[in-house]
C-alpha cells in the first residue's frame, strides 16, 4: 500500500489567498475538500453549468452571474430547469428542493456540491472520503472560489487582507469570518490583553499545527489549552514524520491489520505513535521530580524536542521557546496519557500528575493580566476549563480568603460549527457565558460557526500580517 504524505500548512510560504488554498489541498477535512474542489473546478472551467436556487439580486446571486459571464461556467440554471438540459457537469450551489433532487442526483456525469446541509448524490460522500463536495455556507465558499478562479485563470492574485475586506457584503459566514479576524486582531494588538487560546478536535491531524506555531512564535498567544490527542498528533511533525491521505479503496479492517489508524480522511500509522512514545519515555526518565503538572510535562517535552530536533518547528517547540504554558486538562484521554500510564506501569518509582498545579497557574496568569481574551478553536474540555477560571476565582473568593481579582474575558473569538440548541458546551454562546460571569458584557466577542480548517489559516494570516 503506497501512502500519500500530507503537508502542514506553512503560512510563511503563503502570500496570497491562492497560496493558502493550494496548501489546503494537501491537508485534511474541510480544508482539503476546499483545496481539491478549487483544483477540479479550475481544470473544468468553461465546461460546467452552475445550478443555483437562490435570489439573483443578492450579493451571492450577483456573484454566480458574474462567474458565468466570465466564462468560468457555461450557464446558470435553476434546479427546476436542469432536468430539461443536456449539461453533464454541474456545480450545485446551495440547497435544493427534493422536488428537483432526482434530476440533480442522476443526470450529471459529474456534480460538485457546495452547501451547509451535507447534501450530495447518494453514495458520493463516504466515511473518510468526500469528493466534489464542500459542506459550508456558500456565501463564504463562493467568494473564496471566485478569487481562486480569478487567480488561476486570469492571474489576478489577492492577499488575505483584501479578501477579508470584501467578505462582509455577502453576509452569513463571510461576515462572521471577517468580523472574527478583526476581533482577533484587536485582541492581539491590545498590549494590556493576555490571549488564552484553546483548541479541541483533530487540528494537528488536519495539518494546522504550523498555523498555531506561527501564532505562538509571533507572540500572539500567551496561554494554550488543548487535548493530549492534539499534542500527540502534533508531535509527528516535530519528529520529522508524516500523516497520510486516506485511500477509500482500502477498508478499515485492512487498515487495522496494517496498524494504520484512521482519523476521518487521514492516516496516523502506529509507527508514528511508537516514535512519540520513545520521545515521551526519554523525557520522563530524565524528569527530576516525582510530581508534575500537564503544563510541566509539555514544557519538558518542548525543551527536549528543541534540543534534539533543532531544525524542526512545532507547537511544543514554539511554546517552550516563547514561554507559553500548554495546558491539557483531560491529560489521560490521549496517546500521551497512554504513554504516561505505560511509563508508570514499568517504573519502580511512579510519577504523579498534579492537576491542581495547573489550576493555580491559570489563576495566576489571570491575576497577572490587566485584561484577558480567549480565542477558541472547537470547544470541549479545553474551552470549558479555560473559561471556568472566572467561576473558579469567584468561588475561591467566596469560600476562602483568597482575595483574588475577578476578571472576566474582555474579548472572545470562537470558531466552531456547533449550534447552541444541541445543549453542549461547544455550541454555547458567549452571551450564555456572561450569565456565569465568564465574559464581560461590555467586551467584544465574535462567534464563527464553521469548520475551523476552512477559516483559521485566513484569520491567522490576517493577524500575522
Report the CATH C-level class of the largest domain: Alpha Beta
- Secondary structural class: alpha/beta
Number of continuous helical runs: 20
Provide the helix percentage: 40-55%
The CATH architecture assignment of the largest domain turns out to be: 3-Layer(aba) Sandwich
**Strand elements, count:** 17
What summary fits the major beta sheet? 6 strands, parallel
Instruction: Compute the average pLDDT.
Output: 96
User: Quick one: overall form?
Assistant: globular
Major beta sheet, strand line-up: 13-8-7-15-16-17
CATH superfamily of the largest domain: Deoxyhypusine synthase
What is the CATH topology assignment of the largest domain?
Deoxyhypusine Synthase
- What does the radius of gyration come to? 23 Å
Domain count, please report it.
Answer: 2
Determine the N-to-C terminus distance.
41 Å
Percent of residues in beta strands? 15-25%
Describe it.
The chain has helices spanning 17-24, 29-43, 59-69, 79-82, 101-106, 138-154, 160-166, 172-189, 209-217, 228-238, 252-257, 270-286, 294-308, 315-322, 335-346, 355-367, 380-387, 389-399, 430-435, 452-464, and strands at residues 4-5, 49-52, 76-77, 89-93, 110-114, 133-134, 193-199, 223-225, 244-245, 260-263, 266-269, 291-292, 326-327, 352-353, 371-377, 409-415, 439-448. By secondary structure, the chain is α/β, with parallel strands linked by helices. The protein has 2 domains: 17-158, TPP-binding domain (Rossmann fold), CATH 3.40.50; 173-464, Deoxyhypusine synthase (Deoxyhypusine Synthase). Strands 13-8-7-15-16-17 form a 6-stranded parallel β-sheet, with helices on both faces. Helix 1 crosses helix 2 (29-43) and helix 3 (59-69) packs parallel to helix 6. The longest helix is centred in the middle third of the chain and has 18 residues, at 172-189. 48% of the residues are buried.
Amino acid at each position: 500500500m503506497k501512502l500519500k504524505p500530507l503537508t502542514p500548512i506553512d503560512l510563511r510560504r503563503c502570500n496570497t489567498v491562492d497560496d493558502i488554498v493550494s496548501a489546503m489541498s494537501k491537508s485534511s477535512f474541510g480544508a482539503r475538500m476546499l483545496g481539491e474542489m478549487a483544483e477540479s473546478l479550475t481544470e473544468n472551467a468553461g465546461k460546467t453549468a452552475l445550478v443555483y436556487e437562490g435570489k439573483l439580486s443578492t450579493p451571492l446571486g450577483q456573484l454566480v452571474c458574474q462567474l458565468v459571464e466570465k466564462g468560468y461556467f457555461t450557464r446558470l440554471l435553476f434546479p427546476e430547469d436542469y432536468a430539461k438540459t443536456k449539461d453533464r457537469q454541474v456545480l450545485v450551489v446551495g440547497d435544493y428542493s427534493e422536488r428537483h433532487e432526482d434530476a440533480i442526483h442522476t443526470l450529471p456525469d459529474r456534480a460538485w456540491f457546495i452547501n451547509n446541509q451535507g447534501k450530495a448524490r447518494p453514495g458520493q460522500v463516504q466515511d473518510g472520503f468526500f469528493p466534489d463536495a464542500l459542506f459550508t455556507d456558500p456565501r463564504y465558499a463562493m467568494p473564496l472560489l471566485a478569487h481562486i478562479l480569478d487567480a488561476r485563470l486570469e492571474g489576478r492574485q489577492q492577499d488575505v487582507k483584501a479578501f477579508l475586506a470584501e467578505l462582509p457584503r455577502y453576509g452569513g459566514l463571510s461576515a462572521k469570518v471577517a468580523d472574527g479576524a478583526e476581533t482577533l486582531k484587536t485582541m492581539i494588538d491590545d498590549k494590556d490583553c493576555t490571549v488564552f487560546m484553546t483548541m479541541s478536535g483533530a487540528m494537528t491531524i488536519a495539518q494546522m499545527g504550523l498555523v498555531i506555531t506561527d501564532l505562538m512564535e509571533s507572540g500572539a498567544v500567551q496561554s494554550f489549552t488543548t487535548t493530549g490527542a492534539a499534542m500527540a498528533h502534533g508531535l509527528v511533525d516535530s519528529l520529522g514524520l508524516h500523516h497520510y491521505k486516506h485511500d477509500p479503496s482500502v477498508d478499515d479492517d485492512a487498515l487495522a491489520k496494517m496498524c494504520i489508524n484512521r482519523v476521518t480522511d487521514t492516516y496516523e500509522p502506529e509507527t508514528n505513535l511508537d516514535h512519540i512514545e520513545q520521545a515521551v519515555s526519554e523525557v520522563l526518565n530524565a524528569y527530576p521530580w516525582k510530581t508534575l503538572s500537564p503544563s510541566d510535562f509539555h514544557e519538558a517535552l518542548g525543551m527536549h524536542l528543541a534540543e534534539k530536533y533543532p531544525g524542526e518547528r512545532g507547537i511544543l517547540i514554539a511554546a517552550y521557546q516563547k514561554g507559553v504554558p500548554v495546558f491539557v486538562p483531560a491529560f489521560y484521554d490521549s496517546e500521551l496519557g497512554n504513554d504516561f500510564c505505560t511509563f508508570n506501569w514499568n517504573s519502580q518509582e511512579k510519577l504523579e500528575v498534579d492537576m491542581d498545579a495547573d489550576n493555580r497557574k491559570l489563576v495566576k496568569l489571570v491575576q497577572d493580566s490587566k485584561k484577558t481574551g480567549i480565542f477558541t478553536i472547537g470547544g470541549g474540555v479545553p474551552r470549558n476549563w479555560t473559561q471556568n477560571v472566572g467561576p473558579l476565582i469567584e468561588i475561591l473568593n467566596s469560600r476562602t480568603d483568597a482575595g483574588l481579582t475577578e476578571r472576566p474575558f474582555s474579548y472572545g473569538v470562537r470558531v466552531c460549527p456547533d449550534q447552541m440548541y444541541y445543549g453542549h458546551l461547544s455550541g454555547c454562546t458567549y452571551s450564555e457565558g456572561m450569565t456565569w460571569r465568564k465574559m464581560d458584557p461590555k467586551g467584544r466577542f465574535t462567534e464563527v460557526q464553521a469548520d475551523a480548517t476552512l477559516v483559521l489559516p485566513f484569520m491567522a494570516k490576517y493577524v500575522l500580517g
